[in-house]
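In the design runs reported in the main text, the only information available to the sequence generator was the tokenized backbone. The following block is the verbatim input for one such run; it is reproduced so that readers can re-run the procedure and compare outputs position by position.
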């Protein structure tokens, strides 16, 4: 019994020691965390900027320079007209509050429930929406930054909270803060503040805005580039409807008002754009959008010097083409991208005809169209040569071919030519051969090949499987710049560099310059032998009227067919097409040209015969003036040339046969009757 009592005392003592240690550890952790938090908040307090209302409306312009360092544009000169809270219509106030900060008039700078919910979502990986109040956005847009991730994002967020509570809400009324918010930001089209946006888009003072107009402007605060009604009218309409739904949810409008407002498309109510524009506006827009995409900073809002890749002499060729070429009507469009094969630099763009405003739709970079047969070197023959060592002679049988999952591939002319070499299949652009080539190569390797060239396929479901329709360009699509960049790898011996229009940015902040350099690495994405074979074969597609002295010029064309049901409904010719493409490349540059209409209607359509003749004219006008002289594709040592007996399968050497290219070590054997093969060489 005594022993048992002793054990109880020992256990009690041990328990007491355990809890003392445990409480000491917990207390130490609390003290340590407290010290960290104190240091963190002290850091915020010391480094928070002063709130100066003068800075809200002062914006130094940004400068854009060409590849030689010559100034081509000064942007960001503010078009702004300050309005008071009393001049704002209630419908705009309601739209902004419902969209950006539903408890704006109730909190004191931070909406705590919303902040805690967003914080929980951030740490659990579930997006719970932003937590910035209107007051915090006033701080972020002018005094801190747009940084949203990592420790820098956390510091920025808490700095905004401190600024909102202790430097804005403490000294200014809600009405004054709301004035700061609506008068300061860039709202697309070179406009700053709601008054200029209202006048530009709706030709009226802000006080006269109706529900739909107010919802449109309120929706732009989140992303003025994405929701610019001149650039993306459909996205702007979708965003406008989101604002309408939020206004309904918070009780500002009735269901009937919401339904009527959602029926109206923004495109139908905005005013026509001004025609005064910089002659290099297409390239300027390309640069501005890339800066926004890469840095999160808008040159219209943040002062900077931007050094671009534009080669003025090449851009002038496109500008002159737009002015001088005789187009079939005013609505047909041409998008052009020109890439420097050695660097990936975008040296010129055709952003579209009749460009009338800043940051309008860019036909060089922002369209996504089916590439048609220009996809064949990318998805079919390129991967076959790369991974299976195909030669230009590799045999195919041109005949109807079944898709793996049902259906049959036919040629556009509904005829078949029997035995063909790979070169004949590519040069003649036979669809059935393209599908056979696609089916013969591992789908994963095709995916690897095209994605390394900057092309994004359209996958089936959540897999990385590429549908066989890609073999003839039947997928979501590409832009001219994307396609030119992909083909540049064929022209430069197998290297790819991400297409880019900027090389350096110098930020101008508080008497100091912050330099950000952009280096775009060239990566080998295919063998030199693959690039050369494709280039060698596609020289035979180039029209005799497209020529530059001493220069190898390769071409691939493509068309995408229009939807059969739509063609029938509109009673259009059966030869109606949707998109016409021409990709041309030399060792120096790659030029991708898209020709077509925004929408297919009874009056805006192209036929295959018209597109064929028109794209040769356009190609000639651009390419003959852009390409450098005396530039040849260099045949790599890994390729041999041999004459092959016509129609032999497998290929056999013949002194009188056609000349073809083979990867060294895969060339055909000699016929028994042939003792000597003619020595040949190719450029």
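Verbatim output:
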């Amino acid at each position: 019994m005594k022993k048992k009592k002793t054990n109880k005392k020992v256990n009690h003592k041990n328990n007491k020691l355990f809890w003392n240690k445990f409480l000491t550890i917990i207390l130490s952790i609390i003290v340590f965390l407290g010290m960290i938090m104190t240091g963190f908040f002290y850091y915020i307090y010391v480094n928070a900027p002063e709130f100066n209302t003068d800075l809200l409306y002062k914006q130094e312009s940004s400068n854009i320079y060409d590849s030689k360092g010559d100034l081509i544009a000064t942007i960001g000169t503010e078009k702004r007209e300050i309005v008071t809270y009393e001049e704002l219509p209630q419908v705009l106030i309601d739209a902004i509050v419902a969209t950006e900060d539903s408890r704006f008039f109730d909190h004191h700078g931070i909406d705590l429930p919303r902040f805690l919910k967003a914080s929980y979502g951030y740490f659990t990986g579930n997006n719970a929406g932003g937590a910035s109040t209107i007051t915090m956005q006033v701080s972020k847009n002018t005094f801190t930054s747009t940084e949203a991730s990592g420790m820098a994002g956390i510091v920025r967020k808490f700095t905004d909270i401190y600024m909102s509570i202790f430097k804005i809400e403490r000294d200014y009324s809600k009405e004054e803060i709301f004035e700061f918010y609506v008068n300061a930001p860039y709202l697309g089209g070179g406009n700053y503040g709601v008054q200029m946006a209202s006048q530009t888009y709706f030709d009226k003072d802000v006080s006269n805005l109706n529900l739909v107009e107010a919802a449109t402007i309120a929706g732009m605060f989140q992303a003025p580039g994405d929701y610019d009604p001149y650039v993306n009218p459909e996205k702007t309409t979708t965003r406008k409807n989101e604002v309408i739904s939020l206004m309904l949810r918070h009780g500002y409008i009735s269901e009937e008002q919401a339904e009527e407002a959602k029926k109206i498309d923004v495109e139908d109510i905005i005013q026509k754009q001004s025609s005064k524009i910089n002659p290099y506006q297409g390239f300027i827009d390309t640069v501005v959008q890339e800066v926004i995409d890469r840095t999160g900073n808008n040159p219209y809002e943040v002062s900077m010097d931007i050094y671009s890749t534009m080669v003025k002499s090449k851009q002038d060729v496109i500008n002159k083409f737009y002015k001088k070429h005789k187009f079939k009507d005013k609505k047909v469009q041409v998008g052009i991208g020109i890439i420097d094969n050695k660097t990936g630099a975008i040296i010129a763009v055709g952003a579209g005809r009749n460009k009338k405003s800043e940051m309008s739709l860019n036909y060089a970079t922002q369209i996504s169209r089916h590439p048609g047969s220009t996809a064949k070197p990318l998805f079919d023959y390129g991967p076959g040569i790369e991974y299976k060592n195909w030669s230009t002679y590799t045999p195919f049988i041109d005949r109807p071919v079944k898709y793996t999952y049902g259906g049959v591939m036919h040629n556009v002319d509904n005829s078949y030519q029997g035995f063909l070499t790979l070169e004949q299949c590519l040069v003649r652009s036979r669809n059935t051969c393209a599908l056979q080539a696609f089916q013969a190569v591992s789908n994963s390797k095709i995916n690897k090949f095209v994605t390394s060239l900057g092309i994004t396929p359209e996958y089936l479901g959540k897999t990385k499987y590429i549908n066989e329709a890609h073999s003839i360009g039947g997928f979501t699509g590409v832009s001219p710049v994307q396609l030119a960049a992909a083909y540049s790898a064929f022209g430069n011996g197998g290297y790819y560099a991400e297409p880019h229009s900027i090389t350096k940015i110098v930020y101008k902040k508080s008497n100091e310059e912050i330099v950000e350099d952009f280096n775009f690495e060239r990566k080998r994405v295919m063998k030199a032998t693959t690039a050369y074979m494709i280039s060698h074969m596609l020289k035979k597609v180039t029209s005799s009227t497209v020529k530059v002295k001493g220069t190898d010029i390769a071409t691939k064309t493509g068309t995408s067919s229009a939807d059969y049901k739509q063609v029938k409904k509109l009673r259009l010719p059966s030869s109606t097409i949707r998109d016409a493409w021409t990709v041309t490349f030399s060792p120096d540059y790659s030029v991708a040209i898209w020709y077509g209409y925004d929408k297919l209607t009874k009056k805006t359509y192209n036929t295959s015969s018209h597109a064929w003749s028109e794209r040769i004219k356009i190609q000639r006008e651009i390419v003959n003036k852009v390409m450098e002289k005396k530039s040849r594709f260099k045949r790599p040592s890994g390729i041999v040339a041999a004459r092959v007996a016509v129609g032999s399968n497998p290929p056999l050497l013949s002194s009188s046969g056609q000349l073809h290219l083979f990867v060294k070590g895969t060339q055909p054997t000699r016929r028994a009757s042939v003792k000597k093969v003619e020595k040949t060489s190719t450029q």
